Every structure is written in C-alpha cells, then in structure tokens.
Amino acid sequence: MKSESIKLIDEKGLRIDGRKPDELRPVIMEVGVLKNADGSAYVQQGNTKVIAAVYGPREIHPKHLTLPDRAILRTRYHMVPYSTDERKSPAPTRREIELSKVIREALEAVIFVELYPRTTIDVFIEVIQADAGTRTAGIMAASLALADAGIPMRDLVAAVAVGKVNGQLVLDINQLEDEYGEADMPIAMMPSLGKIVLLQLNGVLTEEEFKKALELAKKGIMKLYEYEQQALKKKYVEIKPEEV
Amino acid sequence: MSITPTNLRIVSTLKKHSMASLIEKGLRIDGRRLDEFREITIIPNYIAKAEGSAYVKVGGTVVIAGLKVGVGSPFPDTPNDGVITVNAEFVPFASPTFEPGPPDENAIELARVIDRSIRELRVIDLSKLAIIPGEKVYILWLDIYVFDHDGNLLDASMLAAMTTLLVAKIPKAEVKEDKNVELNKEDKASLPINNKVVTVTIGKVNNKLIVDPTVDEEQILECKLAVSISEDGRIAGMQKMGTGIFTEEEILEAISLAKNASKTLFSKINEAIKKAQ
C-alpha cells in the first residue's frame, strides 16, 4: 500500500517540483509531427511525453466491423518499453486495454462519426516517457491529431488529472504525487461546451473535495485548451505561400 | 486496440422509444422509479470449496464471486503487504453477445474498477496479510464470474466481491523449517476488513439519470457513471463509461443518487451476512 509518510508539500505550500498547488507543469504541444499519418501531434507535460497519430477516415479491414450509419473508432493507448522506470513489456497490459477503452469512448463523444459511414478512424497514442498524466496528455495529443487530420469535431479535448497529496488538492500531478498521493482524478472535457467526456477517480474523496477538485481541473483545462489552440494555429501560420 | 462495438444486443426501435419516453416522464418499463434498484438476492458462501464466495442476483443479472487463497512473494514496492488480484470473466452463455476467449475490455474494466475501489479504500488491511514480511505473504485471488447478463454487471459484481470478502475465512499460515509456509485448513479466520464499499452505476438518457439500468435500457443510454461509495458515505472511485457526455451538474446529481442508493446495497449485504452467521 501507499506510504503516507512522504512529504509532498513543503512549509511554503510548494510541491516537490516547486509548483504551486494549482500550477500546471510546463507544456509543449506541436501539431503535424509525423510525415505519413493523416494527422499527428506531440504533447509534453513536465516529464511526460506522448505522440499521437490519426489515420482515416479509411476503409475497414476486417469488413465485418463496418457500421452502415457511422464511422467506427479504433483507439490504442500504448506505452513503449523504455517509457517507464522498469522496462514495460510491449504487450498490452490490462491497464492499457482499459485506458484505450476510456479514451476511445471520450473521443467518440467529440467526433462527428455519422459523417463517415462504413469507415474507420484509427487513433494511435504512444507514450514515450511516462511521468503521470499519460492518459490526459494522450487524449490531448489525440484530439490535436484529429484536428490536424481535418476530422470534424464538436470541440477539442483538454484533459488534466487532479490529485490529493498530504490531504491537499493539487493540479496536474507528477509521478511521485501519483504514487504517494491519496487520490488521482483524470478528467477530460470539451472546454467550450463545458461537457465532460472522461472522468475517473482512483482514490477516496468526500463530496466537497470532489467539487473542489472539479473546479481545479476546469481551471487547468481552460489553460491547456489555450495551449492547444496556439499549437494548431502555429502549424498553419507557418505554412509558406509557395508550399500551398 | 479498443474498437467501437458492432455486435450490440438488438432491441426493437419501438421498445427503445417506449423506454425513453417513459424515463422522460420519470417512469421505467419495469415499473421502477428512476432511482430504484431491481430486486437483489445475495447468498453468501455459495461455493463451499472457495475460501469465500457469494451468489448475487440483481434483476436477471447473475454473478458469482469466489475467493481462493495462496502463499507467494509480495510486490517489491509493498514488501510487508499481502496481495489481492481481482479478475472478472463474462462467460459465453451469459449473453448472446459474449464470446469465449480471454477477458475483453469490458471485463478488464469491470475488474479494475472493483480492484481500485477495494484497494484505495483499504477495504482489506493488507498489512495484516504478511506471513514473513518481505518474503512470504498471503495472495488473495478474487474471481468474479458473470453467468447471466441483464444489465448493470458492475454493481452486481461489486456486491458479490464485497460479500465474498466479508464472509471469507482464510486458513492460518504456519511457518515451518527453512521458512516453508503451510496453510492449515483446519484453523481459519476472517479477513482483516477495514471498510465496506459498493458501486452504484448511473445511466444517462435524454438528460435524465437512472439507477441500475437493465440490459435493454443500456442500449438507450448515452453513457454511464459508476460511483463507488464507502459505508461512511465517501466517494471511493468513479468511472465514466460509454460514449456520451456528462455536464458538471449531472455528475453531482449522479453522486448524490449513488450515495442514496448505496444505503440499500449496504443493508442488503449486511442482512445477507447476518442471516449466514
């Protein structure tokens, strides 16, 4: 079980990496990072690094998976073996299978799947360095890659995890805070619409704490949403006229 | 890879419409209120060979959980704690949409949600399950089998899991020469239980929230929120499932619905255990 003895917040109220409780880790987002994929994106949050890529809408193989009135979505969240402290086997773990499912379900709420019947939209997420918040970084990378692929969406998805460490709620937890903290709540939203598309809670919170955690998450999500928009704009502003 | 399901159960459009329009009016097709569970049957110690077990029936959903106990090495990061492993399988005859093979994403998700709620709330005091600290500990295998699928597998499975842990009697460990450990099946004791947890799954249809959806109702749900609640009313875990969206207000309403419904579930568990003793 987790040890509660580790001090994750100092006397000044600062966290183990020097952040304030409501402060995000430094973010880097880049769109169109791969040559072959229809859309791709790189997201870095602190020491967490994720690449996502989208293929599609394209034909489905095997054919029996086809749906006549909408596109299907296929999503794989995967951590590469060198992304973690101990080597992670490349075979999909139970955790990765579950996260692939919750990420797919979150994205299905966002994409206008009914516009592309009898096709598949494939979303691949590779975590290349894991330091907590990989599913939230992954879902943001996926949403940027989908936008880069030109797939119509209701909104971008911004996501962050709120944690509880030493009895205090903190935004965007890192690996130490995840390992030794008391709760971890990843949440993904369509920020402009204020809709929640992914919500998990691992840990114990009172109803009051949950409400506060949700407020904290929303604050982080609005900030991340701005970074996402900047990253998307950056790619298209940079295209030189002669390339068009 | 997670793929949009295409082998869904078929429910007639007429039935879907009548279920949805009834829910709109605050009614259910089976006569229940929106916040009401179906009839619940819990039979503890259903399987004599298991160290603990429970048969649970919620409406037409049938789940049997069983606990088996062994001795093994602890995890390196928790050398002084026992180990619990939760596994769930949906047997092929439980539904026309289930197929033989290793657990799919739904079974894995279900087992992991239950595992997390038990772990995070410290339902079992795992530190009391070390035999030789750092070397030998109790290993608990909690296996959840779904035998008939009539919706809301998660809440039924959690009821079965929780009842199983509460009634389980595990054999005393005896340390022999050379640190060999033997389990004495003649001398058994209850598990060190700290707390109790249940899961209440709330479904969303046309901005209405319903408790304990049936398998047919699940076909008209936009999404579900499973809320794990401890006996002292804290939130011990959450999982949004399905492809739809929730607003903040809906999440808060779902939590309070879950809190209320959890009281029924705890009283069912406590009643069943009292009877079994």
Summarize the structure.
Chain A is an alpha+beta fold and 244 residues long. Chain A contains four helices and nine strands; from the N terminus they run E-E-E-E-H-E-H-E-E-H-E-E-H. Chain A has one domain: Ribosomal Protein S5, domain 2 (2-Layer Sandwich).
What do you see in this structure?
The complex is a heterodimer of chains A (244) and B (277). Chain A is 28% helix and 29% strand. Chain A has helices spanning 94-108, 134-148, 175-180, 207-238, and strands at residues 27-31, 39-45, 48-58, 72-79, 120-129, 158-165, 168-171, 183-190, 195-203. In chain B, α2 (105-120) packs across α3 and α3 (153-167) runs parallel beside α5. The mean pLDDT of chain B is 96. β4 (72-79) of chain A pairs antiparallel with β1 of chain B.
CATH superfamily of chain B: GHMP Kinase, N-terminal domain
Uncertain spans of chain A? none
Largest sheet of chain B: 6 strands, mixed
**Class of secondary structure makeup of chain B:** alpha+beta
Number of domains of chain B: 1
CATH architecture of chain B: 2-Layer Sandwich
Shape-level CATH architecture of chain A: 2-Layer Sandwich
Distance between the termini of chain B: 46 Å
CA-based gyration radius of chain A:
18 Å
- Show unreliable segments of chain B: none
List the total number of helices of chain A: 4
Largest interface: A-B, 44 and 43 residues
**Structural category of chain A:** alpha+beta
CATH class type of chain A: Alpha Beta
Radius of gyration of chain B: 20 Å
In round numbers, the mean pLDDT of chain A is: 95
Count of discrete domains of chain A: 1
Q: What proportion strand of chain A? A: 25-35%
Q: What's the oligomerization state?
A: heterodimer
* Secondary structure: helix percent of chain A: 25-40%
CATH C-level of chain B: Alpha Beta
